[in-house]
Amino acid sequence: TPPPFYLYPAGQVLSPVGPPRARQTAVALPLAPAVTSSRRAIIAGTDVDRAGAPQQLLAAAAAAGVEAHLCYAPSDLKALLKAEAGNVVIVDTAGHSGRQADRMLETTAFAHVAPRRVTLLVLPAVIGAADALRTTAAFAPLVPAGLVATRVDDGAAFGGIAAALLQSGIGLAYSTSIEEGASGLTHGDNHS
Length: 192
Prior knowledge:
Elements: E1 13-17, H1 24-34, E2 41-45, H2 53-64, E3 67-70, H3 74-83, E4 88-92, H4 101-112, E5 117-124, H5 129-139, E6 146-150, H6 159-168, E7 172-175, E8 186-187
Parallel strand pairs: 1-4, 1-5, 2-3, 2-4, 5-6, 6-7
Antiparallel strand pairs: 7-8
C-alpha cells in the first residue's frame, strides 16, 4: 500500500486511474487537502475531452479550495510539474476500462512525463469479479501501488474488490463511500 497522505514527498505525482464512474475525481479531491501544510497539492485535470468534465473538475476544485489546472497534452502536464516542483500534483485522469488502446495510450503518455508517480487503481466496490480482474490486468502496465475501493456503502458483497486484491497483489490503499463523497478517504486496511 502507498504511504499515508502526510508522507508524500514534494515533487510527487499521485495518479488515480480506473473505469468510468469509479469516481477518480472524488478520490483526487480529498487527496489534495490531506497533503501536509508544508507543501500544497495541485490538481492536474487530464479528462478534457468528455463533455462537461473540465468544468466539473474546476467547479469541484474551487468549492474544495484546491487549485486546479487543465492539461490538454502531456507537454502541459510536464510544464505544470516543472513549475510546481516543490508541491504534490494529483493527476485527475479520464475514466476508461484500460482495454481501449487509444485511451490507454493517452493515460500512459501522461504517466510517462511523471516518473515520480504513485498510481492508485480506483474501482467501485460494486464491480463484479470478472470486470475487476480484467480492469486490474489492463492497468497493470501503470504499476498501481494501491487500490482504492469507492462506493463501499453502495453494495452488499465485495467479491470483485476481493478478487482484484488477491489476484493482483495490489494492497487496499483507501476506501470511500458515496456519503463521504469528496470529504475524505479512509486509509485502507487489508485485514478488514
